[in-house]
Amino acid sequence: MEATMSVLYWNCVLLEASRRDFTKGFVGGQQPGPIRTSRAMAIVHLAIHDAVAFHSGSVGSAYLTKKGIPHAVPPLPAGATLDAVVAGAAVTAIRAMYPNHSGPIDDSLSNETGYPVGVAIARALVDYRSRDGWDVMLHDDQLPMPGHFEHRADPHQPGEPGQRRLGPKWGKVWRFTDSVLDADGHETHHEHLDPWPQSDYPAQLREVRDHGGAQRGARSAEQERIGVYWGYDGANGLGVPPRLYNQVARRIVDGKGLTEAQLADLFARLNVAMADAAIDAWHWKYHYNLWRPAVGVRLETSADGDPFWCPHGIPRTNNTPGHYTPDFPAYPSGHATFGAALFQVLRLALATGNGPIPIADVLAFGGGEKPAAAPSETFSFVSDELDGASLDADGSVRTRVEKRFDSFAEAVWENSVSRVYLGVHWRFDGIPSPDDAASPIGGVPLGLAIGEKTNDFFNAVPGAISDLP
């Protein structure tokens, strides 16, 4: 293993473990769903981050130190290589998160000087997070008598085990950054999110009815591409959004010449941001408990309703069955929150723009505008959903599509609205209307705020383990 590749190497191993965890589709294995996946990926990359911190002598910048986590990390022995310390941390953390997939993991450096230091770092992190609430009620039954607007089972899969509510208590899992716990150890702080705007509901119902149905209807081929491209809804062999966004980040840093310390710092930040995004988004999902279009369009009593309406549903990739709607409330969109947090971290950590991504830049794309390209943020990416190998619902091989983005704001917008074109979200689940641009409505403002807070956490005294460009 080359020293210049260790962080990206172990990120690749982590993404492969996650992919294998979803070889049977959404039901997953050890880290089912986007919430547990985001937590697992944050723990692994924090272990790698702290391995770099301890090896470089920047112990004060380690996550273990910033959070005051007890540990028994031994002194770094003479001659310990960065590769060995990082490998010890990565192997230990990945095996702890994915023990069923640990067989093929390369531990050839286990006899190297410094490897035990990495092992001790990962064990301290895994032990600390083992008490964070991750194992409390992953699924719960649907409410027996939901009221109007309240989330309930997808009518197309009413008796499916997959339609139990995912993560009703995930909002109580300890956040990775500024977690505040009450006397019972429960989370008491989340980034603020305004209620969903009922005044926008009629227009947005018509939009998702016409653009997100099983039949293409008003949905253009490009809109369908957008919906499928950002899918990763637990499909067989693909996994869930945190894996997708790590792939995007890998593509963005390709060729930038970042050092190992910079890569370790960046991937820790973006995975921590997504883990906190899952905690905050799921807190608000069950606070507002809004139904999805699969229910709302069918139960609408005005002329805008359609009692027979069926959503396009999540991409039925590699034999994922049915017109499936995710089994948790709509508002806010997890996809929108994850994606906004990721791109905000990338913007701030890589200093590709003047300050954070503002919501106005994201909304500009929804108004039919094409803002000027941001040269330092342009990138192209091929989604596993459209890679020329994944299979569509009819068994055909999907066409390979390489999409170019001219700015991170464009990617944030497209990722958010993709869910409307699948018929699984209302538009305000992701982004506010232009009239509400100043209000924290939807997953995009929530994710952008989380990205900023994550960046601040890693830069807090005594600072980061590297100077990102």
Word description of this protein:
- With 469 residues, the protein is mainly alpha-helical.
- The protein has helices at residues 6-21, 33-56, 63-66, 82-97, 115-129, 201-211, 221-229, 241-253, 260-288, 293-299, 334-350, 359-366, 408-421, 443-459, and strands spanning 139-140, 165-166, 379-382, 402-405.
- Helix 12 crosses helix 13 (408-421).
- It is globular and about 75 Å long.
- The two termini are 25 Å apart.
- The model has no long low-confidence stretch (mean pLDDT 92).
Topology:
Blueprint: H1 6-21, H2 33-56, H3 63-66, H4 82-97, H5 115-129, E1 139-140, E2 165-166, H6 201-211, H7 221-229, H8 241-253, H9 260-288, H10 293-299, H11 334-350, H12 359-366, E3 379-382, E4 402-405, H13 408-421, H14 443-459
Antiparallel strand pairs: 1-2, 3-4
Helix pairs in contact: 1-2, 1-4, 1-8, 2-4, 2-5, 2-9, 4-5, 7-13, 8-9, 8-11, 9-11, 9-14, 11-13, 11-14, 12-13
Name the CATH superfamily assignment.
Vanadium-containing Chloroperoxidase, domain 2
Identify the CATH class: Mainly Alpha
**Which geometry do the CA atoms define?**
globular
Tally of separate helices: 14
- Largest beta-sheet characterization: 2 strands, antiparallel
Protein name: Vanadium chloroperoxidase N-terminal domain-containing protein
GO molecular function: peroxidase activity
InterPro entries: Br/Cl_peroxidase_C, PAP2/HPO_sf, V-haloperoxidase, VCPO_N
Pfam families: VCPO_N (PF17897)
Short description:
This protein has 14 helices and four strands. With 469 residues, it is mainly alpha-helical. It has a single domain, classed as Vanadium-containing Chloroperoxidase, domain 2 (Orthogonal Bundle), CATH 1.10.606.
